[in-house]
Amino acid sequence: MNDEKYEKAKKRVKDLKHFYRDLISYVTINAVLVIINFVTSPGKLWFYWVTIFWGIAVLLHASKVFLLKGKLLGEDWEEKKIREIMEKDRKP
Q1: Cα 60 to chain centroid, rounded
Q2: In Å, how far are 2, 60, 91 from 79, measured between CA atoms?
Q3: SS3 of residue 59 by DSSP
Q4: Alpha carbon separation from 76 to 9, 20, 30, 45, 70 (Å, rounded)
Q5: Of 2, 17, 35, 37, whose CB is crowded by the most CB atoms within 10 A?
């Protein structure tokens, strides 16, 4: 049981680390894009397109990591589905 808890905690930390790495990349790269946009073509703003669409991806990743926590088609779902299928196979 402790090994199972440890593995779940380890996976959770890995997911969090991946999300924070993505978030740092998002903020850093978008800051650079804003600077490039204002330096090269201040009259025509284009940086926000990258920020919006990439931001949607970051929000989806955040919802997976913080709200869903792997519940949607995650390990718990897999285990539940396996048990369900095994139960159906047992019935004559």
Answers
A1: 6
A2: 18, 24, 19
A3: helix
A4: 14, 23, 35, 45, 8
A5: 37
